[in-house]
Amino acid sequence: MSSKPIHKFHVEMTCSGCSNQVQRVLGKLGDKVSNVQIDLPSKSVQLESEELSSEQLLEILKKTGKEVRLM
Fold first, then answer.
1. In a domain, 28, yes or no
2. Main-chain phi, psi angles of 55, to 5 degrees
3. pLDDT tens digits for range 4-16
């Protein structure tokens, strides 16, 4: 069982290209994030990170140009 904080976001994704863009942005963070789960139908992104706060991750996800908010 993981003890890392879980961060959940709503991201306005409408297609697989959108979700791939989110994956690319998060992929650049390397081992700062783990267990990334992107669910296109529910427009949700969930991940674990001890090093980054929800607010920091929110700003990083906004770099996709999509509307993003904490869940």
1. yes
2. -65, -40
3. 899 999 999 999 9
Residue 62's closest CA among 48, 49, 45? 45
pTM comes to: 0.91
Domain membership flag for residue 1: no
For position 57, which CATH number holds?
3.30.70.100
**Torsion angle (degrees, nearest 10) of CA 57, 14, 16, 51:** 10
- CA dihedral defined by 44, 59, 57, 10, rounded to 10 degrees? -10
How many distinct structural domains can be found in the chain?
1
pLDDT of 23-71, one tens digit each? 999 999 999 999 999 999 999 999 999 999 999 999 999 999 999 999 9
